[in-house]
Amino acid sequence: MLEFEFTVLDWSAYAAGLGNQQDWLDWAARPPQLPTIDAQAAPALTEMPAMMRRRLSPLGRYACQVAWWCQQQPDSAPLVFASRYGDAAHTLTLLKELVQGQSLSPTAFSLSVHNAFSAVYGIARGHTGNALAVSAGRASVGAALVEAAALLADGAPDVLIVFYEAPLPQHYRVFHDEALAEYAWCWRISKPVASRPLVRVRVDVPSDPIDHSADATPAAWPSGLAVLRHVLQQMAQPEVQAGGHTDASLQRQDRPGSQWTWSAHA
Predict the structure, then answer these.
(1) Which among 249, 12, 58 is positioned nearest to 166, based on CA atoms?
(2) CATH superfamily, with its number, for domain 2-194
(3) Cβ 175 vs Cβ 168: under 8 Å
(4) pLDDT digits (tens, 9 = 90+) for 206-248
């Protein structure tokens, strides 16, 4: 069993129609509903110089915008950018150009790799600290938090986690095993802080086989959204804000042979 705790010092999130913290708190309080997908809803990201901003895809703007909101002043806090698929649409465009015999743009290629968004963000902010790019299938959000917890254990005072996702291009939709969603969120986390709500993550490896059938259907929520909604719900509970805890927890089976349990308390 692996277990760790952390405090969310600050957070931000973005999706079509959900542009600030209150929007997301209201969304988390309502019956479950996935955010709207709108290809024209990318954030303005006016904080980034225009020349750099133009290089980013809509998903890149999602990721960099929530990171910027959560890191108002540049600092050297480690960055963990995470996504299951990354910018798959950009990669598919390059593959089509390759098949057609076109020359690939070095700039376009450099923006297709999984750490491209963290690199562009780091350059724009003058960031000189550690930066990681994580992908671990359906367990990508959990893997990102394990990386962040390791950085905290290694002495980092706080860590910025940026999680982002968009639907796969139509050619790749056959591989989708979760509901389609386009969103990004960022948490600035630290080791547990007294009197502040904290999040506990536990990873178990049960002795009995886990039945994944119910959680592997197309209707299953993406982990990134399920975890965000649960944590926002629990942190808004009066019991947690008053220094107590609730019995509510979120259990996910996003990695074969393991079960992730998320809870929030003080």
Answers:
(1) 58
(2) Thiolase/Chalcone synthase (3.40.47.10)
(3) yes
(4) 666 555 444 443 447 898 999 999 999 888 775 555 555 555 7
Lookup result for tokens 């990102």: 144
What residue spans define the domains of the chain?
2-194
* β-pair partners for 163: 82, 185
Tokens for 200, please give them: 């506990």
User: What secondary structure does DSSP assign to the chain, as a single string?
Assistant: -EEEEEEEEEEEEEBBTB-SHHHHHHHHHSSP-PPBP-TT-----TTS-HHHHTTS-HHHHHHHHHHHHH-SS-----EEEE-SS-SHHHHHHHHHHHHTTPPPPHHHHHTTSTTHHHHHHHHHHT--S-EEEE-BTBTHHHHHHHHHHHHHHTT-S-EEEEEEE-PPPGGGGGG--S----EEEEEEEES--TTS-EEEEEEE--SSPP--GGGSSTTSPPHHHHHHHHHHHHHTSHHHHTT-B-S--EEEEEETTEEEEEEEE-
> Do β-strands 2-14 and 198-204 pair in parallel, antiparallel, or remain unpaired?
antiparallel
Q: pTM value?
A: 0.89
